[in-house]
Write a structure and sequence with these properties.
The complex is a heterodimer of chains A (350) and B (297). Chain A is 73% helix and 1% strand. Chain A is mainly alpha-helical and 350 residues long. Chain A has a domain of 230 residues. Chain A is globular and about 75 Å long. Chain B is mainly alpha-helical. Chain B has one domain: ABC transporter involved in vitamin B12 uptake, BtuC (Orthogonal Bundle), CATH 1.10.3470. The termini of chain B are far apart. Classes of the chains: A mainly alpha (350), B mainly alpha (297). Chains A and B meet through helix 6, helix 12 and helix 14 of A and helix 4, helix 5, helix 10 and helix 12 of B.
Amino acid sequence: MNKNNLILYIGIIIFGLAAPFVFPAFKVQLSILCILIVLAITWNIQGGEMGYNTFGNILFYGLGMYLCASVQVGMFFPLAEWTESGGEKTFVHTPAQFFQGMAMGLVVAAVVPTIVAGLIGYAILGLRGHYFAICTLGLGVAAGEISGGIEIIGAGQGFTTPPFPNVGSLEARGEFFYFLSFLVLILTFLAVKAIYSTRFKLILNAIRDNEDKAEAMGIETMKYKIIGWMISAFFCGLAGGIMGGLVGYIDSTDVAFDGREMGVFMVLMAILGGKGTLWGPVIGATVFHIFKEGFWTFFLGWQYVALGVLIVVIVIYFPEGIMGWLREKYPERFGEVVDEADRKAQVEIK
Amino acid sequence: MDFLVFQYPMITVQACLDGILLGVLFALIAYGMALQWGVMNIINIAQGDLVILGGYIAYFMYLYGIHPAWGVIVAPVIMYFVGIAIYKLVINKVVDRDLFISILATFGISILFMQLMNFAFGADVVLANSGYGTTMLFDNNVVLPNSKIFSAFISILFAVCLVIYMKRSKLGRAIRATAQNARAAKILGVDTEKVYAATFGINAALCGVAGALISITFTIHPYMGLPYTIRSFMIVIVAGLGNLPGVAMSGMGLGVFEEFADYILGTEFRIGSVFLLLVLILVYRRFKLSRKREYLK
């Protein structure tokens, strides 16, 4: 089992490193896939393991996006003039400035959402069930509407992120963003995997199964809920920062705080793959992205209609996801001890 | 503070009156939400999109030369059947499941409706001109469009009719019985499936009325649904389920709040302030309840 896992991981890493050279035309798509997987994995910490179905992780994603771009610009040029002139025309980043700004921006984009999650966590995570879901939905939309009214980050017309500097090769931009997002994906996966092997995951599951009982057992549930949310916020912020640079343009409601697309995608991907599993979100995001990119062109203009139908179908007919389905089919593979006599006895009772 | 609101008291009066007339409409939508929430335990994110769809029905009547005020009669009839169709296709599969499933499923319906309306009616902001003129009050300092007064009046009329219907009719009794205890109602011979369908239909019809009125008084746009959902949700949680005077009062309160937010913060922050208010209300209630070691459930 362990050896197989090792081979699997090495295979994935080799594939990940080789992918941009094997499929040069799909570099941007592959980078987006990495970001989507990161978002699905982090959503799963709340929605799957903790039982807190959030629509609000988009808040950290959008915050990271705006912060990264603002820092990248603001370190070298006046931000207000940049947004007023529509960006790239007046000021040009040298390569060194671009990469320094990006590095600094990503740090800020990861740290600030984490702090924000910690600050609002105590207030928001005290809500339960659908109140939490609606509250976080409101939080995401409010952030989008409010950022759409702030002049210095471009208000309604949006914000152009610094264009990639000319470093010789034409392929450099795609490769840079691909490897960056792949790195973040690996970091996220390893971090979450490490977390899931500790007591922390058991506490999250206890919160999901019965929060009152967990509290009665002496677990400070609030502390763990906030820490869980901060971990999500950290990686969501990073993902947002990279996505901002990748898209090249930030709009408050259509790119950054895009509850109608990204905000639903992350929920959908995690549910499609299987909530509450480590690999579920990864598989779900991959399947979803392939489906989306493969079939979106057939539904040209009708994507959102297809998306709406897809949400309804997945939620109603497939709530356990791919991993849940596999688990039902091959329980031995998931480390569940199957007692044949017990299984037969159950059938007889029916 | 050099806000206009404080310099000219008449603007305050204007904002209050506008807000109250608007709030009555919100209360009507919230009443539908409270109904289905109480009876079926479902939070319908597509509520606002049903409202907008009702608005488009009135708008199309206006385009074809019929006075849009007749939409108040036509829209609920059409929307009732739309509601029944949605119930049969989707909602009856999520009624007895986890609440999040219903939220997500109706979110899907909401996205679907948004986009279908965008295709069918275009992405322009439209309004149906009722040609009702305006009323001037206080030496022409306060301007109230008659359409707003008309819409508030019609909303109250529909709400009162519905309350009487729920009290007196057989279906109303069945709905109330199902809300109290669905299983017991089933045992006593109530066809709960039918009751659920009727409830969802009535909710959609109410949304249709509200939408028709909104198309006369304000503007409609395919993507404007979600704020109406959030507003009605907010009104219901502030008032509590089954508290009709509370729904009316908090609806008007929300209307006034919005008008003031519009004047003080600026129109671009209007929707944002509504969503922020929702978060603040929920957080406030959470802290209030946590003192008693309880939580919102």
